[in-house]
Amino acid sequence: MCRWAAYRGEAIFLEDIVSAPCHSLVAQSHCAQEAKTATNGDGFGVAWYGERAEPGLYRDILPAWSDPNLRHVCRQVRSHLFLAHVRASTTGATSRDNCHPFVSGNWSFMHNGQIGGFEHIRRRLENSLPDHLYAERHGSTDSELLFLTMLAEGLDRDPHGAALRAVNRVGETARQAGIDPFLRFTAAFSDGKSLYAVRYATDRFAPTLYLSAGARGQSLVSEPLDEESGSWRPVPAGSFVKVGAAGVDVSPFTPAGDVLAVVA
Fold this sequence. Notes:
264 residues, alpha+beta, disordered C terminus
Protein backbone atom coordinates (compact mmCIF):
# COMPACT_ATOMS: atom_id res chain seq x y z
CA MET A 1 0.00 0.00 0.00
CA CYS A 2 1.11 3.56 -0.67
CA ARG A 3 1.56 6.42 1.79
CA TRP A 4 0.50 10.02 1.21
CA ALA A 5 0.13 13.43 2.85
CA ALA A 6 -1.85 16.53 1.93
CA TYR A 7 -1.99 20.06 3.37
CA ARG A 8 -4.19 23.17 3.14
CA GLY A 9 -3.65 26.40 5.06
CA GLU A 10 -1.08 29.17 5.28
CA ALA A 11 1.74 28.78 2.78
CA ILE A 12 4.50 26.54 4.14
CA PHE A 13 7.54 24.91 2.62
CA LEU A 14 6.84 21.46 1.21
CA GLU A 15 9.65 20.09 3.36
CA ASP A 16 7.60 20.82 6.49
CA ILE A 17 5.54 17.72 5.64
CA VAL A 18 7.42 15.84 2.93
CA SER A 19 10.94 15.60 4.37
CA ALA A 20 11.54 17.47 7.64
CA PRO A 21 9.33 15.74 10.30
CA CYS A 22 10.70 12.72 12.15
CA HIS A 23 8.17 10.48 10.41
CA SER A 24 7.91 12.52 7.21
CA LEU A 25 6.61 11.13 3.95
CA VAL A 26 10.21 10.46 2.87
CA ALA A 27 10.74 8.51 6.09
CA GLN A 28 7.55 6.56 5.41
CA SER A 29 8.85 5.64 1.96
CA HIS A 30 11.35 3.29 3.59
CA CYS A 31 9.88 2.76 7.06
CA ALA A 32 6.07 2.91 7.06
CA GLN A 33 4.50 1.76 10.31
CA GLU A 34 0.83 1.27 9.40
CA ALA A 35 1.02 -0.34 5.96
CA LYS A 36 1.21 -3.92 4.71
CA THR A 37 4.78 -3.29 3.61
CA ALA A 38 7.25 -0.94 5.26
CA THR A 39 8.80 0.07 1.93
CA ASN A 40 7.12 2.37 -0.59
CA GLY A 41 9.87 2.65 -3.16
CA ASP A 42 8.09 2.50 -6.53
CA GLY A 43 8.28 6.22 -7.22
CA PHE A 44 6.90 9.40 -5.71
CA GLY A 45 5.19 12.64 -6.66
CA VAL A 46 4.20 16.09 -5.43
CA ALA A 47 1.46 18.38 -6.77
CA TRP A 48 1.32 21.92 -5.42
CA TYR A 49 -0.76 25.04 -6.07
CA GLY A 50 0.74 28.48 -6.56
CA GLU A 51 -0.20 31.50 -8.65
CA ARG A 52 -1.65 29.51 -11.55
CA ALA A 53 -4.92 27.59 -11.58
CA GLU A 54 -3.29 24.29 -12.50
CA PRO A 55 -0.91 22.66 -10.02
CA GLY A 56 2.80 22.19 -10.41
CA LEU A 57 3.77 18.54 -10.67
CA TYR A 58 7.00 16.68 -9.96
CA ARG A 59 7.10 12.87 -10.21
CA ASP A 60 9.83 10.30 -10.64
CA ILE A 61 10.35 6.55 -10.46
CA LEU A 62 13.18 6.68 -7.92
CA PRO A 63 12.43 5.88 -4.29
CA ALA A 64 11.72 9.15 -2.47
CA TRP A 65 14.58 8.52 -0.05
CA SER A 66 17.16 8.36 -2.84
CA ASP A 67 16.26 11.44 -4.91
CA PRO A 68 18.21 14.52 -3.74
CA ASN A 69 16.26 16.71 -6.17
CA LEU A 70 13.07 16.04 -4.19
CA ARG A 71 14.66 17.43 -1.03
CA HIS A 72 15.93 20.51 -2.89
CA VAL A 73 12.51 21.19 -4.43
CA CYS A 74 10.74 20.74 -1.10
CA ARG A 75 13.18 23.06 0.65
CA GLN A 76 12.55 25.92 -1.81
CA VAL A 77 8.87 25.63 -2.80
CA ARG A 78 6.16 27.14 -0.60
CA SER A 79 2.47 26.42 -1.11
CA HIS A 80 -0.85 26.85 0.66
CA LEU A 81 -2.16 23.55 -0.73
CA PHE A 82 -0.26 20.47 -1.86
CA LEU A 83 -0.47 16.69 -2.21
CA ALA A 84 2.48 14.31 -1.87
CA HIS A 85 2.66 10.56 -2.42
CA VAL A 86 5.09 7.64 -2.18
CA ARG A 87 4.13 4.54 -4.13
CA ALA A 88 4.07 0.83 -3.45
CA SER A 89 2.79 -0.65 -6.69
CA THR A 90 -0.22 -2.97 -6.80
CA THR A 91 -1.11 -2.43 -10.49
CA GLY A 92 0.88 -0.89 -13.30
CA ALA A 93 4.58 -0.75 -14.04
CA THR A 94 7.01 1.56 -12.28
CA SER A 95 6.86 4.59 -14.57
CA ARG A 96 6.31 8.33 -14.22
CA ASP A 97 2.87 8.04 -15.79
CA ASN A 98 1.88 5.62 -13.02
CA CYS A 99 3.20 7.77 -10.16
CA HIS A 100 0.75 9.82 -8.14
CA PRO A 101 -0.54 12.52 -7.92
CA PHE A 102 -2.47 12.60 -11.20
CA VAL A 103 -3.49 15.97 -12.62
CA SER A 104 -6.27 17.11 -14.95
CA GLY A 105 -6.80 20.84 -15.42
CA ASN A 106 -6.98 22.37 -11.95
CA TRP A 107 -7.63 19.01 -10.26
CA SER A 108 -5.07 16.79 -8.57
CA PHE A 109 -5.64 13.31 -7.12
CA MET A 110 -3.77 10.59 -5.25
CA HIS A 111 -4.86 7.24 -3.87
CA ASN A 112 -3.95 4.46 -1.47
CA GLY A 113 -5.81 1.22 -2.11
CA GLN A 114 -6.88 -0.98 -4.98
CA ILE A 115 -9.72 -2.27 -7.14
CA GLY A 116 -10.07 -6.03 -6.74
CA GLY A 117 -10.17 -7.97 -10.00
CA PHE A 118 -9.07 -4.86 -11.86
CA GLU A 119 -7.69 -6.83 -14.80
CA HIS A 120 -11.20 -8.21 -15.43
CA ILE A 121 -13.04 -4.87 -15.40
CA ARG A 122 -10.39 -2.42 -16.59
CA ARG A 123 -11.57 -2.44 -20.21
CA ARG A 124 -15.22 -1.89 -19.25
CA LEU A 125 -14.31 1.03 -17.01
CA GLU A 126 -12.08 2.61 -19.63
CA ASN A 127 -14.80 2.23 -22.27
CA SER A 128 -17.24 4.07 -20.00
CA LEU A 129 -15.11 7.23 -20.07
CA PRO A 130 -16.01 10.03 -22.49
CA ASP A 131 -13.46 10.50 -25.26
CA HIS A 132 -11.89 13.67 -23.84
CA LEU A 133 -11.15 11.95 -20.53
CA TYR A 134 -10.00 8.69 -22.10
CA ALA A 135 -7.43 10.80 -23.97
CA GLU A 136 -6.01 11.85 -20.59
CA ARG A 137 -5.34 8.25 -19.56
CA HIS A 138 -1.54 8.11 -19.77
CA GLY A 139 -0.77 5.31 -17.30
CA SER A 140 -2.17 1.89 -16.51
CA THR A 141 -3.15 2.09 -12.83
CA ASP A 142 -6.54 1.60 -11.24
CA SER A 143 -5.91 4.84 -9.31
CA GLU A 144 -5.69 7.03 -12.42
CA LEU A 145 -8.80 5.36 -13.82
CA LEU A 146 -10.70 6.07 -10.58
CA PHE A 147 -9.70 9.73 -10.87
CA LEU A 148 -10.89 9.98 -14.48
CA THR A 149 -14.13 8.21 -13.53
CA MET A 150 -14.71 10.79 -10.80
CA LEU A 151 -14.18 13.56 -13.35
CA ALA A 152 -16.68 11.87 -15.65
CA GLU A 153 -19.15 11.73 -12.75
CA GLY A 154 -19.08 15.50 -12.19
CA LEU A 155 -16.15 16.18 -9.86
CA ASP A 156 -16.19 19.88 -10.77
CA ARG A 157 -19.80 20.30 -9.64
CA ASP A 158 -20.12 17.86 -6.75
CA PRO A 159 -16.94 16.30 -5.31
CA HIS A 160 -18.74 14.17 -2.70
CA GLY A 161 -21.36 12.92 -5.15
CA ALA A 162 -18.81 12.30 -7.90
CA ALA A 163 -16.72 10.11 -5.58
CA LEU A 164 -19.83 8.15 -4.56
CA ARG A 165 -20.95 7.69 -8.16
CA ALA A 166 -17.46 6.57 -9.21
CA VAL A 167 -17.38 3.95 -6.44
CA ASN A 168 -20.86 2.79 -7.42
CA ARG A 169 -19.76 2.52 -11.06
CA VAL A 170 -16.82 0.33 -10.08
CA GLY A 171 -19.11 -1.90 -8.03
CA GLU A 172 -21.72 -2.22 -10.75
CA THR A 173 -19.07 -2.96 -13.37
CA ALA A 174 -17.65 -5.71 -11.17
CA ARG A 175 -21.09 -7.27 -10.74
CA GLN A 176 -21.68 -7.17 -14.50
CA ALA A 177 -18.41 -9.06 -14.91
CA GLY A 178 -19.50 -11.67 -12.38
CA ILE A 179 -17.08 -10.47 -9.70
CA ASP A 180 -17.85 -9.61 -6.09
CA PRO A 181 -17.03 -5.91 -5.70
CA PHE A 182 -13.85 -5.26 -3.75
CA LEU A 183 -12.44 -1.79 -3.26
CA ARG A 184 -10.08 -0.08 -0.87
CA PHE A 185 -10.19 3.64 -1.42
CA THR A 186 -8.39 6.19 0.71
CA ALA A 187 -7.80 9.16 -1.56
CA ALA A 188 -7.11 12.90 -1.49
CA PHE A 189 -7.98 15.35 -4.24
CA SER A 190 -8.16 19.10 -4.75
CA ASP A 191 -9.29 21.81 -7.15
CA GLY A 192 -6.74 24.28 -5.76
CA LYS A 193 -9.26 25.85 -3.38
CA SER A 194 -10.49 23.06 -1.12
CA LEU A 195 -8.89 19.77 -0.14
CA TYR A 196 -11.02 16.62 -0.11
CA ALA A 197 -10.42 13.09 1.12
CA VAL A 198 -12.26 9.77 1.28
CA ARG A 199 -11.65 6.78 3.52
CA TYR A 200 -13.68 3.76 2.43
CA ALA A 201 -13.44 0.01 1.84
CA THR A 202 -15.80 -2.86 1.09
CA ASP A 203 -14.17 -4.87 3.88
CA ARG A 204 -12.91 -4.02 7.37
CA PHE A 205 -9.53 -2.80 6.17
CA ALA A 206 -9.92 0.71 4.80
CA PRO A 207 -6.42 2.19 4.43
CA THR A 208 -5.56 4.51 7.30
CA LEU A 209 -6.24 8.25 7.33
CA TYR A 210 -5.44 10.87 9.99
CA LEU A 211 -6.36 14.53 10.34
CA SER A 212 -4.46 17.24 12.16
CA ALA A 213 -5.84 20.78 12.48
CA GLY A 214 -3.01 23.10 13.51
CA ALA A 215 -2.62 26.83 13.93
CA ARG A 216 -1.32 27.27 10.37
CA GLY A 217 -3.45 24.74 8.52
CA GLN A 218 -4.87 21.24 8.24
CA SER A 219 -3.04 18.07 7.26
CA LEU A 220 -4.45 14.76 6.03
CA VAL A 221 -1.99 11.88 6.13
CA SER A 222 -1.72 8.10 5.89
CA GLU A 223 0.37 8.07 9.06
CA PRO A 224 1.12 10.74 11.70
CA LEU A 225 4.21 12.74 10.85
CA ASP A 226 5.50 12.93 14.43
CA GLU A 227 5.12 11.32 17.83
CA GLU A 228 2.61 13.86 19.13
CA SER A 229 -0.23 11.39 18.75
CA GLY A 230 -2.69 13.68 20.48
CA SER A 231 -2.59 16.09 17.56
CA TRP A 232 -3.61 13.44 15.02
CA ARG A 233 -7.23 12.30 14.86
CA PRO A 234 -8.08 9.05 13.02
CA VAL A 235 -10.72 9.57 10.34
CA PRO A 236 -13.34 6.80 10.59
CA ALA A 237 -13.86 4.39 7.71
CA GLY A 238 -16.78 5.42 5.55
CA SER A 239 -15.97 9.15 5.72
CA PHE A 240 -15.75 12.07 3.31
CA VAL A 241 -13.60 15.01 4.41
CA LYS A 242 -13.66 18.58 3.12
CA VAL A 243 -11.03 21.08 4.20
CA GLY A 244 -12.03 24.53 2.98
CA ALA A 245 -12.31 28.18 3.90
CA ALA A 246 -14.98 27.36 6.49
CA GLY A 247 -12.81 24.76 8.21
CA VAL A 248 -13.00 20.97 8.31
CA ASP A 249 -16.16 18.98 7.66
CA VAL A 250 -16.33 15.19 8.02
CA SER A 251 -19.48 13.51 6.69
CA PRO A 252 -20.54 9.90 5.97
CA PHE A 253 -19.42 8.31 2.72
CA THR A 254 -21.94 5.59 1.93
CA PRO A 255 -22.15 4.20 -1.60
CA ALA A 256 -25.37 2.58 -2.78
CA GLY A 257 -26.11 -0.34 -0.45
CA ASP A 258 -27.01 -2.71 -3.30
CA VAL A 259 -23.64 -2.12 -4.97
CA LEU A 260 -20.97 -1.75 -2.30
CA ALA A 261 -21.80 -2.18 1.36
CA VAL A 262 -19.83 -0.36 4.01
CA VAL A 263 -18.44 -2.65 6.70
CA ALA A 264 -17.40 -0.61 9.72
